[in-house]
Hints:
Radius of gyration: 24 Å
Distance between the termini: 69 Å
Order of helices and strands: HHHHHHHHHHHHHHH
Shape: globular
Strand content: under 5%
Number of strands: 0
Mean pLDDT: 89
Amino acid sequence: MNDKVLNIIATELQNDEDGATKIKQIIVQNLFDFVRHEDKESRRRIGVETKSSSNENLDVVAFNGGGKAYVNDGICSSLIQRFISKILGLCFDPNHTFALISVQFCKLVFTLGYENPKLCISTFIGLEASESSIIRNKAHGVLRDLFNKHESLFDSSYSEGFKYAVEYRSSIADGLSTSRYYISILYSVVSKTVSARRKFITAINKSLQNYSSLDKQDHSQEFGRNFIYFMLQNLASVSFLTLEETYMIAETINNILSHQGLDLYDKVKALEENKSKKVVCIQSQAMICFLEFNSFLISKYGLNVERIANFKLERIDTELRSHPKVQRELVFDLDASDMKADLEEMSTVEAILGKFVSSMHFYNNN
């Protein structure tokens, strides 16, 4: 394909101006049609019937080095390698019709083995948070097929996938507070084995620990707080299969509160200047989320506080392999209004800090 044409396509796919969506939609649709046509022609020429874009099961031959035996490795490969990263990002476009076309293109590309599936896993993990049920279902199908064939590729993709989900939901009005089953859906993908569930929950815990240090990250404090809010709000809806999993999460949250939480508690109590209070207010909002979820988890499953403090995953405890019994039917509902509070109002800041101090004091003395 002419370099000038490729440059035009690249420029248009990068265009974020109003009205550019229609052009990008036409480009992606034509790329999709072209790749699908080449697939059909390739199969017709060489008589291969087992490699088809209509097959719902992913056959990720590219990862194993066998893709060239099945697909035309000419112009399709060049086009895909040049544009796949950008089109993966377009899967999160607020225009659901356009986003769906991008999702279908990416699914086709990885189904036919043109690219290493590792490139798409985090994107499809993020797409499980889509407002569109059609897109969620497409993403879910791809993730199930990939997980069944390449489970080991998921471990390093969870964190980025969670980040994509929060970025996407943050861009939607009330998007953070209206999502409740994102983690439950992902949990259903990985729930077949104990080791897979452990790795999934470990990835969640690491992400929570990472974003709990709001003043030490490259991202904004607001994003870190929103990440914690979103993940805990969705984590509350998971029906865990073992008691061990609930203790894994409880131990991580206890560790966060015992370190970052107590440090912040001492800092807030020592503050006098209003300007300094505003700086720690967002951190206090995040810690309030942890405090409320900690109370919820302990109450719902009747967890032993001493056992949480001494929990070690490497210890073999047959009792913790049993199914957790719900002691109290509780609904976890973090106050979304706190996340939207006007932090320019000093009275609002004082109220949030007061709530954090009292909640942290209760946690520290129980």
